[in-house]
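Inputs:
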Amino acid sequence: MTPGKLVERLLHLIPVLAGVSVIVFLMMTLTPGDPVEIMIGDQNITEEGEAALRRDLGLDKPVFQRFFIFVGNALQGDFGLSFFHRRPVIDVIAERLPATIELSLVALIIALATAIPLGVLAAIRKNSIFDKLATVGSLLGVSLPGFWFGILLLMLFSVHLHLLPVSGRVGFESEVEPITHMLLLDSLLRGRFDAFLDALSHIILPAVTLGLPMTAILMRVTRTSMLEVMRQDYITFAEAKGLNRNRILFRHALKNALIPTVSVAAIETGSLLGGNMIVETVFGWPGLGRLVVESIFLRNYPLVQAAVLFYAVTYVLLNFLADILYTVLNPRVEL
Amino acid sequence: MTKFRRVLFASATALSVSLPVAQASEVRVGFTQDADTLDPANHRNRETETIIRNMYDGLLTRDPSMNIVPELAESFTQISPTVYEFKLRDGVKFHDGSPLTTEDIKFTFDRLIQEGGMGDGQTSPRKSLLGPLQSVDVVDDRTVRFNLEAPWPLLPAMLPFQEMVSKSFVERVGTEGMATQVNGTGPFKLVEWRTGDSIIMERFDDYYGGAADIEPVGKACVDRAIFKIIPESASRVAALLAGDVDLINELPPHSIAQVKNNPDTDVVTVNGTRSFFIAMNMENELFKDIRVRQAVAHAIDKNLIIDRILGGNAVSISGILSPDAFGKNKELQGIDYDPETSKMLLAEAGYPDGIDVTLDVTGAFKDTAEAIASLLTKAGIRTTVAVGEGGQLNSKWRTKGGPKSGDMYFTSWGNGSLDPYGIFNPTHRTDDRGNSAGYSNPDLDALLDAAVTETDRAKRAEIYREAEALAAADVPYVYLWVPQDIYGVSKRLKGWRPSADSRINLHDACVD
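Outputs:
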């Protein structure tokens, strides 16, 4: 891809972000429910107290004015104070983001590491018992509710077998001085193998739960594209030439079959980042998804706005990455 | 240092850090919500208060039976209807070692009640919890006086909600720093706040001992106390069963048997302070007629629902107040379960074929609302349950005098102080915040207003008894029950008692 194309694609971000900020702002503001009312709950407050609070939160101004203040500040990188934490939303989001990214990455790795071999195997042994089991399995994987599957894993491995911890990111003893705030990485960088194992034991169940639908999808994609590639003339030709079958499968076929898998994986990674609120809630994982859901219920406008913009940027960039990967893997395709 | 020695050094440090921890006693609480902030003056959230109250103390506190007792204060007296005097306890230290002075007390309250008192242009959202408190004067180095703009007998009941901060510390770290740092006088010091995950605290060895009226007085029992945030109920129960935590809050009634049957865990309950009721929209033509409201009340078999759905963990109420509340009218005759009377009343009101209504409810109480709807339907009040989200339902029902649109709303109101003012005024005064029924009775308003400033305790209680009878006769709500707070505990946990105000005080908690 030429640098010109690259810049052009990046410029696409601007209308997307503008659109997303308008939509998210309007949706939050038009949703019935008042942050001040939610904040006070059923405690005592006087009318003056309520007015003061509204003024402090900037909610006493008309919607249009609030929108322009929001856009103006956002352009300068200021997303305001979280209504409930009373701290800059950027700080609050930044605290939670590493946990979400770490969980998503591990889920991605698990998904890729299981889906590709299973998909290839299913394709090679098309219509075998294994293939049929894999088909049923992937159907289940896509349709099982993450909530239910998570609780099931939790009851089995934590409560009954006592193998893995129930919730959280790491045990209280495994404190590691943060570098990247990704605990698996930090504990290795600090040479704390005990903390690494502890963090790993915490992340396994949520990552498996989170990665399950993606595993299922990627397996299907891999299987289908592998079958597709194996029908191609050049494979038939290679077979006719009498080349080693494994060599054909893994050198010629797999390389091409992985192209759709990789781009689907890149796009799906966006949904890993955005779609883990349920998993984060079940496993008490201190990530961004749970924070955003809680913030929506609390009508914490500034936090939701900033987080949704972040998700939008991530999606666009990941899609972009998927396109680049596609052209790299398949030079015949032009953007 | 050579690389090898660095590794050796690192593992030695790791070992020396992890050894004492392994021997230390530790109580772990599986808790529904993280703190919003660690600044005692900058939130309106009960869960936040529950957490930080273990690191900060108040002038006054409550014992587990909800009596108000001095904590950082040694004693207090009411000098006049508008002036209270507090004697400060001697020898109290903040976590940083500095002594607590009367200047700190004055500073704490100035920060709470002054416009812009937070120092960054903001006013504390807790200001209105202190009613007409106007100023705090330092009399001498052990005495402070609280001056009220008007008589307000609630002051002692509201002071346990406020925690004392250090003037020099706040001036040093600012309101921004207070959000994440702690320097209190409480039994525990902050070790680390892993936001969204856990709050780790350790015993404060210079603790003065806590309220003299709450035994045992002394330092906290455990070396470390941890609040671990587990929002999902099933996971919280699992964490308790797996032994990951020693105590969980909000144990769902349907998990009680599971926790009791597990050999290492048990269930502890305490009367809560939250009254549940059904608001009937009195702006609605249907519910303007008291006979229709009475018909609804007669159609609900409260005891059946308490038994079957709440597992028996609730006490039924005939007026808005909890049975433990000050001024509760104990003679109040409830409206008994009698579906035949319901049908008769409906017919008298001109609805011989019954009526069709909708009952609004939030997702968490869908089951209960459905059970109620089926009882109502049997009595000719054909009820559809509509599940809505909290914020949305509040803006539909808590309109403060603005028009309301629904028929009935299954809702509740909490009352952490157990003083009637906190629940009676908002739900029953004309156009007040929680008056979902749109109820208005000038006589009742007059009683409620008089009670706020009545300083004679006996007279005040009498006013509330009268008010409760008056309101109950008008049937603006179907008063349902006050559920118990249900905790799951590990059998290793000793000394901890639940408190009706849902505070989790870990000072006396020990772990075998």
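Remarks. The mean pLDDT of chain A is 87. Chain A has one domain: 89-329.
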